[in-house]
């Protein structure tokens, strides 16, 4: 009985340390994913296909704000073909929550996308709220498996 009580006491004392270690992994992962989100947006603007091929998972589901869905190949090709063009992407807010000892992350944020002017010369600006799911592949690192976005109403001043 004394042995059991001793083991239970050890377990009780070890739990906070285990929880702390898990939280530290999640905090580190969240910081890493936030930096990667910003890098990915920059790669979309610069048409850096090497980065895009790496950061998008092969089973990517990319849902645009108009509801159209692409897989990885289709989305990257849409950038190559000029169907998805980004002059600038401003990150307004980003929130990353990491899970599973820093092996998965859910990101939600707000961005402003600047695209080439409309045919009549007016600016083509979209305010977007988005959700991203990233997973950490042991060989490939962090990869986006899901993108979902929603256009926000234009803010009138």
How would you explain this protein's 3D organization?
With 157 residues, the protein is α+β, with helices and mostly antiparallel strands. The termini are far apart. The chain has 3 helices and 6 strands. It has one domain: Roll (Nuclear Transport Factor 2, Chain: A). The chain has a 6-stranded mixed β-sheet.
List keywords for this structure.
alpha+beta, Nuclear Transport Factor 2, Chain: A, 39% helix, 38% strand
Number of strands: 6
Q: What is the average per-residue confidence, as pLDDT, rounded to a whole number?
A: 88
The CATH topology assignment is Nuclear Transport Factor 2, Chain: A
Which residues sit in consecutive blocks of at least 5 with pLDDT less than 50?
Answer: none
Query: What general form does the structure show?
Result: elongated
Biggest sheet features:
6 strands, mixed
- Strand content is 35-45%
Proportion of residues in helical segments: 25-40%
Distance between the termini: 72 Å
Q: Given this structure, which CATH class is correct? A: Alpha Beta
Task: Please identify the structural class as seen in this structure.
Answer: alpha+beta
The succession of helices and strands, N to C, reads: HHEEHEEEE
What is the CA-based Rg, rounded? 20 Å
If strands are numbered along the chain, what order do they take across the biggest sheet?
2-1-6-5-4-3
Number of helices: 3
CATH architecture: Roll
Question: What is the domain tally?
Answer: 1
């Amino acid at each position: 009985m004394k042995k059991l009580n001793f083991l239970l006491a050890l377990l009780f004392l070890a739990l906070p340390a285990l929880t702390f270690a898990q939280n530290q992994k999640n905090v580190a992962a969240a910081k890493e994913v936030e930096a990667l989100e910003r890098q990915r947006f920059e790669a979309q603007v610069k048409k850096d296909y090497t980065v895009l091929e790496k950061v998008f998972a092969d089973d990517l589901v990319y849902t645009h704000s108009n509801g159209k869905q692409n897989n990885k190949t289709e989305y990257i090709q849409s950038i190559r073909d000029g169907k998805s063009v980004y002059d600038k992407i401003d990150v307004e807010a980003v929130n990353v929550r990491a899970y599973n000892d820093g092996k998965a992350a859910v990101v939600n944020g707000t961005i402003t996308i600047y695209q080439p002017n409309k045919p009549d010369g007016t600016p083509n600006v979209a305010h977007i709220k988005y959700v991203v799911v990233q997973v950490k592949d042991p060989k490939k690192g962090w990869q986006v498996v899901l993108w979902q976005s929603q256009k926000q109403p234009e803010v009138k001043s």
